[in-house]
Specification:
This protein has about 120 residues and is mostly beta strands. It is built from no helices and eleven strands. The chain is globular. The N and C termini lie far apart (about 40 Å).
Length: about 120
């Protein structure tokens, strides 16, 4: 069974860099056509897609967050990581990692982590 688990600090100070890791079990992040996403949900708001790293290691980001976002991976540990720089209280959200399958046809996000709340506050 595929499982994703987010981990990282629950509290980050303004202007610092938020860093979260998603550990995947039951599937390899290097398997063809799988994309590994970061998505967040601020309190009282909808889901916001942040970016993804592909099975090949290539990345794609939301245009609105691209200047502050970096996604990388450690295939040997089957983990991928989100870094969001220069955070503000507006970045307070529950952060999720999720898997997507895409081979030319979009199949949606089929597995999600439980999410982790990150609060940006001094």
């Amino acid at each position: 069974q595929v499982q994703l688990q987010e981990s990282g600090p629950g509290l980050v100070k303004p202007s610092q860099t938020l860093s979260l890791t998603c550990t995947v079990s039951g599937a390899s992040i290097a398997t063809d056509y799988y994309y590994w996403n970061w998505i967040r949900q601020p309190p009282g708001k909808g889901l916001e897609w942040m970016g993804a790293i592909a099975y090949s290691g290539s990345t794609v980001y939301s245009p609105s967050l691209k200047s502050r976002t970096s996604i990388s991976r450690d295939a040997s540990k089957n983990q991928f990581t989100l870094q969001l720089s220069s955070v503000t209280p507006g970045d307070t959200a529950v952060y999720y990692c999720a898997r997507e399958y895409y081979n030319g046809t979009y199949y949606g996000l089929d597995y999600w982590g439980k999410g982790t709340l990150v609060t940006v506050s001094s």
